Amino acid sequence: MRRAVICLLIMVSILALSGPALAETLTVKMSYNGPPDEVNNAVHYYAVNFKKLVEDKLEGKIKIELYPDSQLGTEEERMELLTKSGLNQPIINVASYAGMAPLLPELYAASIPFMFDSYKAAHQFFDSGRYWSKVKEEFKKRTGAVLLEAVEEGGFLAFTNSKREIKSPDDFKGLKFRAMDEGQVILYKAFGASGIPIPWTELYMALKTGVVDGQMNPATYIIIGSLYEVQKYMTLANIQYSDQFLVVNGDLFDGLPEAEQKAIAEAAHQANVMTREMVESQDAEQIKFLEEKGMKVYAPNEDEMNAFRDKGQPAYIEWLKTTVDEEWLNMALEDAKAANEAVK
């Protein structure tokens, strides 16, 4: 199946690249995760607006075809399609950390827990920070592809559990949490809890049957997964900023006139601003919905957030040092601190 998809993509891509010689419109595929649902899938909302903005700005010179639900392959397969070390096909992809980090582990420095005090701080970090500029440069060097935006996906991750209210790291002791990756296992261990890797598709039943007591996700995923039915307590600890990454094949982007490159970059950022507004406007409504469903929601104060940060960050950073140079970690932390101060 994978080989058939790739072969078909190659044939269509070759035709697309020869398009300008035969017609005025260049057709480009854009792939991403999740269903074609503008209300519940922020990445699809982003893709729809990016497509419209690009096509409007370039007056029909480029047409973008949307492929939601990972139709062009898994995270790894889609990145293989567009990088110079892979098939180097002229496509656009919105990738999560699962697709990006194997190519640039330094990206994990942006996922250090409790880095950002607010959405505005996260925006500043990704829009103008020194770390993020270096990430984009290094990504182009290693893959040949162009990284344009960190697309806001679903707000900040929050802790939930079925046992007790969590106001401090000590409240985690003895609890079992679902972990999405090794970094989360490390974080839970630092708090005195255990982290157990469980796929999203099995999470609801794992919570219902007590295999684990809790998990972390943005409010939108707690609603999508109906996790409020099996979770009582929610702590809004701004654990990690939930984002994905807009990547364009390098030969495709570099082969366009400078004016068209600029238009695409502008469209990428404008669509991101629109997505941020949508996600953040829904956030308060979603939390209210969860409260109405019976969840007890707690927002830690500044001292409590500092306690989470002081206990969780060192262990997570030590884990990251096994794969990421300390220079990258320091740069990310410095940029985050500056962003938090700038938007107070």
From TrEMBL:
Keyword Membrane appears in the UniProt entry:
no
Molecular functions (GO terms): carbohydrate binding
**Which organism encodes this protein?**
Acetomicrobium thermoterrenum DSM 13490
Q: Which PANTHER family match?
A: 2,3-DIKETO-L-GULONATE-BINDING PERIPLASMIC PROTEIN YIAO, PTHR33376
Keywords per UniProt: Receptor, Signal
Please list which residues make up the signal peptide. 1-23
User: What name does this protein carry?
Assistant: Tripartite ATP-independent transporter solute receptor, DctP family
Q: Does the keyword Signal apply?
A: yes
Q: Which InterPro entries match?
A: DctP_fam, TRAP_DctP, TRAP_DctP_sf
The entry's cellular-component GO terms read: outer membrane-bounded periplasmic space
GO annotations under biological process? transmembrane transport
**Domain of life (superkingdom):** Bacteria
Q: Which Pfam families match?
A: DctP (PF03480)
